[in-house]
Write a structure and sequence with these properties.
Layout: E1 12-19, E2 22-25, E3 31-34, E4 44-48, E5 58-64, E6 71-77, E7 81-89, H1 92-100, H2 110-131, H3 143-150
Antiparallel strand pairs: 1-4, 1-7, 2-3, 4-5, 5-6
The chain binds zinc ion (ZN).
The site of zinc ion has 5 residues, from helix 3.
């Protein structure tokens, strides 16, 4: 169940995620860049609902932009996000941007958001492993390599 597009809800469940600290970049993914073009590494973003049937490689997100620090709505690659979880959102700004975005709207149901968070968590790992055919640069600070080195 979703809140109607165009009308901000007072509360919604969104899927929060964090931007990877470093992403592989360039030919064969042999270079590393901090965060993404729009977001700082480590920053928290909200994934908002995408139209049914669209692929999950790209997600519409709301987060604080790298340069301005104000909330922006932008499409980004799922592989550059991690730690997806369902969160209740009360921020009027986030809820307004969610309603204004030309997607399905926000989840109002906690269970729906939790199911999507679990799905995106699995898919993001899969996309990171399949996106680059070449081996990781050495040394590498991409999300998988950082996670392994901290284990
Ligand atoms: Zn790596």
């Amino acid at each position: 169940m979703t809140a109607g597009a165009g009308i901000p809800a007072e509360q919604a469940w969104l899927v929060a995620a964090n931007v990877v600290r470093w992403r592989r970049y360039g030919e064969g993914g042999q270079e590393l860049r901090p965060g993404t073009k729009s977001y700082r590494g480590g920053s928290k973003v909200y994934v908002i609902q995408t139209h049914a049937g669209t692929a999950h490689e790209q997600l519409t997100t709301i987060g604080r932009g790298r340069h301005t620090g104000t909330y922006i709505t932008i499409d980004m690659a799922t592989r550059n996000l991690h730690t997806f979880r369902a969160v209740p959102v009360h921020s009027p700004t986030v809820l307004r941007l969610c309603a204004e975005a030309d997607v399905g709207g926000c989840w109002t149901d906690r269970q729906d958001a939790e199911e999507v968070a679990a799905l995106l968590g699995r898919l993001s790992v899969e996309y990171r492993s399949t996106w680059w055919a070449a081996p990781h640069p050495a040394p590498c600070r991409c999300h998988e390599c950082l996670t392994l080195s901290q284990a």
